[in-house]
Specification:
It is built from four helices and five strands. It has 133 residues and is α/β, with parallel strands linked by helices. The protein folds into two domains: 29 residues; 69 residues, Nucleotidyltransferase, domain 5, CATH 3.30.420. A five-stranded mixed sheet has the order 3-2-1-4-5. The longest helix is centred in the N-terminal third of the chain and has 24 residues.
């Protein structure tokens, strides 16, 4: 009895179907989780220049002092008033910028909650004010 061609030689080709299947599954997992990771990020653009001139901007200023009092452009407001005012400003100008100044002794969670409220009002351009050393 003669041996067929399949029995005589070894495997001459590589089956890449399992490799393609695994690659597609990994790609789908990354595509599904990427938006979740991007939503958690807080974007802050800080100036990199050591010496700069102060320029006037149309950004609204939000401040949270050590006694946990909120101010919007120098006027005392409650958290609800802040949210309403920022929502109206964001509706009027979708590119409205807001700068946030918070006391350095405040817990990180309180500042994050303030930033969350600002972003929840529809403001997308948020900057953090810092003091130069």
């Amino acid at each position: 009895m003669e041996a067929s061609d399949d029995e005589e030689g070894g495997i001459t080709g590589i089956n890449i179907t399992p490799l393609v299947d695994v690659t597609l599954v990994v790609l789908i997992i990354f595509m599904a989780t990427a938006p979740l990771i991007a939503r958690r990020a807080i974007k802050v653009d800080l100036p990199k220049a050591a010496l700069h001139e102060k320029t006037e901007t149309d950004a609204l200023s939000v401040a949270l002092d050590g006694a946990r009092r909120l101010t919007l452009s120098g006027k005392a407001v409650t958290a609800d008033q802040l949210k309403r005012a920022l929502a109206l400003a964001a509706l009027a100008d979708p590119g409205q910028a807001v700068t946030v100044a918070a006391d350095h002794n405040l817990p990180y969670g309180e500042v994050t909650a303030l930033l969350d409220d600002i972003r929840g009002a529809g403001v997308r351009k948020v900057g953090l004010e810092v003091a130069r050393k």
